[in-house]
DNA sequence: CCGAATCCAATCGGATACTG
DNA sequence: CAGTATCCGATTGGATTCGG
């Protein structure tokens, strides 16, 4: 897994043959692979990206968050925000009141994730029709 | 799930209160939600993005592809390229030879996925250390 | 060389019920 | 309100074996 190649181009996966330089790149790239894998495991799950998106305009409480992410169960929302909190992408603030009030908010790091996620979302919207057509053609033949 | 808001800003999830306009946006946005979900289900899996990355510089045969994506099993590589083929992101060309030769290549649509994926990969590499630190801090406390 | 088929463990995620 | 706990079906993905 190399991200910066010998020619300076960016790559997502490793092309490396077995030259010494490439091997160095490969070893360094293994770290990159873990980074990409880790991030993909987070944003690739069913709800994280939607939660990030729901929080992009400000603070939300648990129930509000649940309304903004249609279809998420209480359990999965809890697990998802815990993961995001653990990864330092979301802060969780508990106010000592009755009834309890818990507020979720993106951290600075969490906010930087919005831009690339949005790029992906735009790609999805733009190419979804083509994908649907491709599937029908593939399944039909 | 709204992507373009009333104020023109982009969003990943739906903020919509129940005005008529927002409801229209919401209904239209449900389509966007399916698009994003669909694409996330594809690139969010364990291997698709790595395969796309491996193919970004040209054509590869099955075994080459497997070498370029370290850790992938034969089974998963087969399933992954089939999905990508079905979605019209990759072409699969079988040459009638012995031994058989099968070549995989990105389609035009597949190539457009590289840019946003790379943006995400760069984010991953840049913020992975912060995520690791956040996790240690979270787990330690 | 390029797969398909089978088996199986682990994880994911929904439903439901209960709590401070 | 904001969770936690438990159960359970569905999905994921690795290992292995067989075939054209």
From TrEMBL, chains A, B:
Residues 25-132 form the HTH hxlR-type domain. InterPro entries: HTH_HxlR, WH-like_DNA-bd_sf, WH_DNA-bd_sf. It comes from the Bacteria. SUPFAM superfamilies: Winged helix' DNA-binding domain. Pfam families: HxlR. Keywords: DNA-binding, Transcription, Transcription regulation. Gene3D superfamilies: Winged helix-like DNA-binding domain superfamily/Winged helix DNA-binding domain. This is Helix-turn-helix domain-containing protein. It comes from Microbacterium marinilacus. The lineage of its organism: Bacteria, Bacillati, Actinomycetota, Actinomycetes, Micrococcales.
